[in-house]
Write a structure and sequence with these properties.
- The protein has a single domain, classed as Rossmann fold, CATH 3.40.50.2300.
- The chain is built from five helices and five strands.
- The chain has a five-stranded parallel sheet, with helices on both faces.
- Strand 4, helix 4 and strand 5 form a beta-alpha-beta unit.
- With about 120 residues, the chain is of the alpha/beta class.
- The termini are close together.
């Protein structure tokens, strides 16, 4: 079964994604911040990471940067409420972090579930 790691500090977002992804046939692992996400990725070797960017302890961008250094072929989808993430320097930094990776994509909240599922299928 394909494993997806969902990293978001908002429990309702994690739970909604868990329900939707489970119904679509995926095994879902959840983390509430980038520190936990980094640890779980290394322990569970998921096929895909879906992560928020701005979180306490360790932000998603820092988690991705660290993971991509060790796992350059990892696949990830970045989700964010927009604002800083989809503009200017933060977006450019995300693109630099993803440079050379097989697949890192961004989706702005709120997003349609069908849009996210389609993106997941295209990456996997």
């Amino acid at each position: 079964m394909t494993k997806i790691l969902v990293v978001d500090d908002e429990e309702r977002i994690r739970e909604a994604l868990r329900r939707a992804l489970t119904m679509d046939g995926y095994e879902v692992i959840q983390a509430s911040d980038g520190e936990e996400g980094d640890r779980l990725f290394r322990e569970c070797a998921p096929d895909l990471v879906i992560t928020d960017i701005f979180m306490p302890k360790k932000e998603g961008i820092d988690m991705l940067k660290d993971l991509l250094a060790d796992f350059p072929d990892m696949k990830a989808i970045v989700i964010s409420g927009g604002g800083r993430m989809m503009e200017g320097d933060a977006l450019q930094f995300l693109l630099k972090v993803a440079e050379g990776s097989v697949a890192v994509r961004a989706v702005k909240k709120p997003f349609e579930l069908d849009e996210l599922l389609s993106l997941i299928r295209s990456l996997l």
